[in-house]
Amino acid sequence: MLGSATDAEDVLQESYLRWSAVDPATVEHPRAYLVRVVTRQSLNHLRAVKARREEYVGTWLPEPIRTAPELSEDVILNESVSMAMMLVLETLNPAERAVFVLHDVFGYTHGEIAASIGKTEVTVRQIAHRARRHVHARRRRFEPDSEATREIVQRFLLATTTGEVQALMDLLAPDVVQVSDGGGKVSAARHPITGRAEVARYVLGVARTSVTATTRIEHATYNGMPAARSLTGGELDWLLAFEIHDGRITGLYVMRNPDKMHRADAVHPLNRGERQPWKP
C-alpha cells in the first residue's frame, strides 16, 4: 500500500493505538474492524506524503524488501511487491491504490472494500476497473528469482567487473531501463536511463569507480526479484534488483539511499497464509 516499511510501521502503530482504545467485546468482527482501520490510515498517509514524494531529489524507488525464496511460489504477491509494480502503483491515486491492492492482491470482495474505504460498492467497482486498466497498461513482466535468473545476474556482474562490453550488451534488452535512487544523499543518476548502449555505458562507468579490492558482491532476493548487493568493509553500499524477461535484462533498479537500506538485511517471507472469510 505504501511502498515504505517505515511508513507502514507508522500506520500500524497508529492503528494499534486506535484498537487498544476500543473494548474488543463491542467489536463483532475484529478482522473486519482492523482491516478497515489500517486501510483508512494508509489512505490518510498516502495523501499526506504526496507532496513529499513530488519534492524528492531524483527518482523515488520503494524501500527494498529482502524476500525469502519461497515468495516466488506466490506469483500474485511476488509481482505485487516488485520494484516495477510498486512504481506503477505510485501513479494511482490513493483510493485506486487501496482498491487494487485489497482486491487484486489480497482477494477482498468489492463489498468488503466498500466497507473499508467508506464508498458504495458500485463506486468501488468503477475504481477497481479504472485502476486495473491503468496497471495492466503499464505493468512490466519479469521472471522471479530462480537458478536461471541467477545465472544471468552472475554473467552481468562478471561482464561489468571485467569491462566486457559486448558480453554486457548481449544480456540487456534493447529497451532496458535503469533507475537509481540516491535520495539526494549519495551519487546516483537523477533520471531513468533508457536503451542498451546508454545503460551499458553507465553501468560500466559506475563499476570502474565503485568496485574495489575490498568490495564483496553477493546474490540476494529483493522484492521477489533476483538481486545483487555490494558490501564494502562489511557495510552495505548498494542494492541492484534485476527485472528479467525472456532471458534478457529489461530493468535495473539501483538503491543507494542510505535511509532506505538500514533494514535491508532483514528477510521478510511475506507469507499471506489462509485468508479467512470476512464480513463487513
Automatic annotation (TrEMBL):
Coiled coil: none annotated. The gene is sigJ. The lineage of its organism: Bacteria, Bacillati, Actinomycetota, Actinomycetes, Kitasatosporales. Keywords: Sigma factor, Transcription, Transcription regulation. It comes from the Bacteria. It comes from Streptomyces aureoversilis. It holds the Pfam family Sigma70_r2. Gene3D superfamilies: 1.10.1740.10, 3.10.450.50, Winged helix-like DNA-binding domain superfamily/Winged helix DNA-binding domain. Belongs to the sigma-70 factor family. ECF subfamily. This is RNA polymerase sigma factor SigJ. Residues 83-134 form the RNA polymerase sigma factor 70 region 4 type domain. Residues 1-48 form the RNA polymerase sigma-70 region domain. Signal peptide: none annotated. Interacts transiently with the RNA polymerase catalytic core formed by RpoA, RpoB, RpoC and RpoZ (2 alpha, 1 beta, 1 beta' and 1 omega subunit) to form the RNA polymerase holoenzyme that can initiate transcription.
